[in-house]
Amino acid sequence: MKRTGALIAGGLTLPFCFPAAALEFSPGDYEMLPANKSLMLAYFQTSHSDALYSQGKKVPGENRLQTEATLLRFIHGFRPQDNLSIEPQIIVPLVRAEMNTPFTEQASGAGDIILGIPFKFSPGSAGRDIFSLAPFVYAPTGAYDNQHALNIGENRWRYLLQGVWIHHFRDKWALESGADVSWTTPDNQYGPGNATLRQSPRYEYQAYLSYQLTPATRLGAGGGWVTGAESSVNGTRQQDRLNSRYIRLSASHFLTPSVQLQISGGRDLKVEQGFRQDSTVSIRLGVLF
């Protein structure tokens, strides 16, 4: 999951806060759930960054960020029609982060709860395409203290709309692409002076190629691009528009017909603003019932 928010260090304004501003998906995530089934997911994620960028230039000095997160996600699928699946869900993140820029900041606690309701539709074509439109709402429930540069919660509402298309162009191959946009309400308690923080819409595009190695095992590779999300503080533009690119590799396997294990990892290729992830690893356990 991606980062957003605000940090002021030495006069430099940089986005950094939890939870995610956009939702990364993995190959297979937008396949339809079996009718009237539920899926419980637990994610264990860690990432490391040792470079900080501002307006495309690396900030001098030792700047590091280490994060560890556990996310719990519950999904239930309804099938009003054979080719339509409605899957309401809730995501609860628990995060621990440590930042050195070079001063040290630590933050931990529950993040903003995310509620969503994807609509997945299959036109029944020979290519077995699936189209999905998924609105999500981030509630400002996460830990937030405007006296600190690093926070777990955003202290504002976020609304995200994600669209995904899956095209099965061979028996074992699929191309999955998606785009999302998110908007936020103002944060009127930004920084020690209770300034007003606003942010322009944030955009993300993702694309993955997946291969069904066996009926139980899927491999995937792809990446994404993030842009937008320029901030303003009390009406002053911060010139911190995002422009980042990243890659991801993933492998998932059903240990039993109802238990799936997925491992994914990757890194940022280019970052214009904020920390550049040199490594991120996620382990996901899912139980279908």
Q: What's the CATH C level?
A: Mainly Beta
Structural class: mainly beta
The average pLDDT is: 90
Order of helices and strands: EEEEEEEEEEEEEEEEEEEEEEE
The CATH architecture:
Beta Barrel
Per DSSP E runs of 2 or more residues, the count of β-strands stands at 23
Beta content: over 45%
Helical run tally: 0
The helix content, as a percent range, equals under 10%
Number of domains in the coordinates?
A: 1
CATH H-level homologous superfamily name: Autotransporter beta-domain
Main β-sheet, spatial strand arrangement: 3-5-8-10-12-13-14-17-18-21-22-23
Overall spatial form: globular
Distance from N terminus to C terminus (CA atoms, Å) equals 25 Å
Can you summarize the main beta sheet? Answer: 12 strands, antiparallel, barrel
Can you put this structure into words, describing what you see?
The protein is an all-beta fold. It has one domain (7-288): Autotransporter beta-domain (Lipocalin). The protein is built from no helices and 23 strands. It has strands at residues 7-9, 12-14, 38-54, 57-58, 64-76, 78-81, 84-86, 89-100, 104-110, 114-116, 119-121, 130-138, 158-167, 173-184, 187-190, 195-199, 202-214, 217-228, 231-233, 236-237, 242-256, 259-270, 274-288. The strands form three sheets. It has a twelve-stranded antiparallel barrel with strand order 3-5-8-10-12-13-14-17-18-21-22-23. It has a four-stranded antiparallel β-sheet with strand order 15-16-19-20, with no helix packed on it. The chain has a two-stranded antiparallel ribbon with strand order 1-2. Strand 13 (158-167) and strand 14 form a beta hairpin. The chain is globular, with a radius of gyration of 19 Å. The two termini are 25 Å apart. 39% of the residues are buried.
